[in-house]
């Protein structure tokens, strides 16, 4: 397996409270690994450590075999980008979409800003007219597409997805998930996605880890889950609570 992400013995504590307790997993290049769990299980805390947003961790995090430290380089943030849960909160309300998408390119003194912004919008199926609007002038689904475009404009290899559809209604969730699946196929991206919704994880990811009380209590393939092969009681409970693993099902974008 050509491993893109390797996590071993990851522990994260806030003060005296240990919230992630020795998590191990790896993700193959071009794969999608989902982390599912209830609120407070530690799943988003793991993702933030991967992204370099949480420095209170110990253990090993490596990308393509190269360990990363508590501080990350500019090159890391070109390679690894994150899409956040709330598309409205993650986009500056006083900036146009053009400015939001151009910021990374301006900071890094990248050429062809006009062309790259237009290509990023096209990648997420947004019309050029969106470019000079403000976030509040867009729908929730459009805002999340802008957030994805902002991540893509860095031309990353890895996207870290923090509940990317939880703020959207079900029909829009399906559109965004199908977009993410299409982007992964076309661009060869590697995903790590966290969600409390097992149906969302099963829709997009081939493999998943189940978090409970800071521990990854089980890892299994989506196929094994669908076939009733989960072994840990918490995984089986999450599956039972899910109305259907096909809840998110819509024509491909």
CATH fold node name: Rossmann fold
Neighbour order of strands in the largest sheet = 6-7-8-3-9-10
Helix-and-strand structural type: alpha/beta
Question: Helix and strand succession?
Answer: EEEHEEHEHHHEHEHEEHH
Q: Point out poorly predicted stretches.
A: 243-253
| End-to-end separation | 30 Å
Helix content: 25-40%
What is the CATH architecture assignment? 3-Layer(aba) Sandwich
Characterise this structure.
This protein has 253 residues and is of the alpha/beta class. The longest helix is centred in the last third of the chain and has 18 residues, at 170-187. 35% of the residues lie in helices and 26% in strands. The protein has helices at residues 43-51, 74-79, 97-107, 113-123, 140-152, 170-187, 198-204, 222-226, 233-241, and strands at 3-14, 17-28, 32-36, 57-63, 66-67, 80-83, 158-162, 190-195, 207-212, 215-221.
Topology of this protein?
Elements lengths: L2 E12 L2 E12 L3 E5 L6 H9 L5 E7 L2 E2 L6 H6 E4 L13 H11 L5 H11 L16 H13 L5 E5 L7 H18 L2 E6 L2 H7 L2 E6 L2 E7 H5 L6 H9 L12
Helix pairs in contact: 3-4, 4-5, 5-6
Quick take:
This protein is of the alpha/beta class. It is 35% helix and 26% strand. The chain has 9 helices and 10 strands.
